[in-house]
Amino acid sequence: MAKLVIIDDEAAILELMTKLCKAAGHQVFGCTTGIDGIAAIRSHQPDLVIVDLRIGDVNGLDLVSMCRDQFPNTAVIMVTGHGSVETAVEAMRLGAFDYLTKPFDLGDLIKTVNQALQRNGVAASTPASIPSATLRSASSSKLIGHSDALQRIFDIVRRVANNDSPVLLEGEFGVGKHMVARALHEASRRSNSPFKELQCSAMPEDALETELFGQTAIFNRVAGGTIHLAEVNQLPARIQAQLNTFLDEAQSRKGWGNGTGSSDFRLVVSSTVSLEDSVKAGKFREDLYYKLSVVPLKIPPLRERREDVKPLVEHFLKELAERTDSKAKTIDANAIEFLEKYNWPGNVSELRNAIERACAFAEHDRVRPSDLPTKVTRQIEVPTPSVHEGLTKLPIGSTLDDFIKSQERVFIQETLKYNSGSREKTASMLGVSIATLYRKMGLNVERKTTT
């Protein structure tokens, strides 16, 4: 059993990490302020400290330096957001063992903790069950959907999981490249080793070079696991050349997946643009492209697999309930229909955010169309007559009620078009009974049976 101090000013995240590390058999002291954290370190002299880079009263880097100078036998793991990766690399220079980028998988937390403890000669332990959740979302590695396109991706993931050849994932922003990369890792023989992700566009060139090829490089820290280089198309030309040489040397030493240290890893890269087009445009090295694209995999946008929207929505509703420790909300069938017809330029990421927003606005326990973002529900464009057109259609002397009825009929007609003529769906969407709809359309209710 090791002694751990965890410092994070977000109480929910601190509680989650504390519970997990205690379940792994460690003695844990949780602190929500830097001052309390420093006091706990001095009092308990822990084997490991986990600290958020950004805590209100203390700079996380200062705490790393303090541990290096005053407690050299205490390992430090930094927690950071994608936007602070450059600073996290600086923490590595100051003596931190590793860093985790939010949102991270809880299984990766335990694996990194064990690595840090083992390096310092402290016995590591593993919990009986590691929750398949992240600090932001549950089961982030699950590929959710029923479409044929996604089933083909499932099949490829299963077939190449234990083939250590590099995989190139291409697809639009937010399409789920991170989830596919993690699914490849978790389906492979490397699943008990770390999964590490680096956003190649998230830091300046010098910091990126250090993170890839320095003494504390990501390749040295992955320890037989999987590395996902996201936005690999953003690598500067000099870094491309270094990576090309590094991969040649790694392959010549032991071959993919059979080496030790910096040569024992599975490499997955991803790009939001066609890497082949980048090669043709002279923006990406051709020899590096061929090394990285041994197994190419294109992930289709959400608008091309609309049948995946509903299972994704149901997953996000459940995920949000688990995160907030509340009952999962249900969703109105009309709301689902709006979601399925929207084009989702931001793909799965945009859909997730839309569901979170809808749950925040929803009354009671049901998400309705009115709770969805207006960009999703503004898909029925109702032509509004101009003042001149209105006057020509309704002569002077008409009542306001006459005008409202004429506008009402236009809206009903457009809603009918949207629902492909289904009066039942239209009545449900407008929130009126079928009898009221027939009356407003100027039809007799009896005609319902003949339409």
Helix percentage: 40-55%
Biggest pleated-sheet summary: 5 strands, parallel
Low-confidence regions: 127-141, 256-260, 447-451
Instruction: Give the CATH topology of the largest domain.
Output: Rossmann fold
What's the CATH architecture of the largest domain?
3-Layer(aba) Sandwich
Mean pLDDT: 84
Strand order of the largest sheet: 2-1-3-4-5
Describe this structure in words.
The strands form three sheets. This protein has a five-stranded parallel β-sheet, with helices on both faces. With 451 residues, it is of the alpha/beta class. The protein is 47% helix and 12% strand. The chain is built from 20 helices and twelve strands. Helix 13 packs across helix 15 and helix 18 crosses helix 19 (423-430). The protein has four domains: 3-119, Rossmann fold (3-Layer(aba) Sandwich), CATH 3.40.50; 148-300, P-loop containing nucleotide triphosphate hydrolases (Rossmann fold, 3-Layer(aba) Sandwich), CATH 3.40.50; 303-377, Helicase, Ruva Protein, domain 3; 387-450, Arc Repressor Mutant, subunit A (Orthogonal Bundle), CATH 1.10.10.
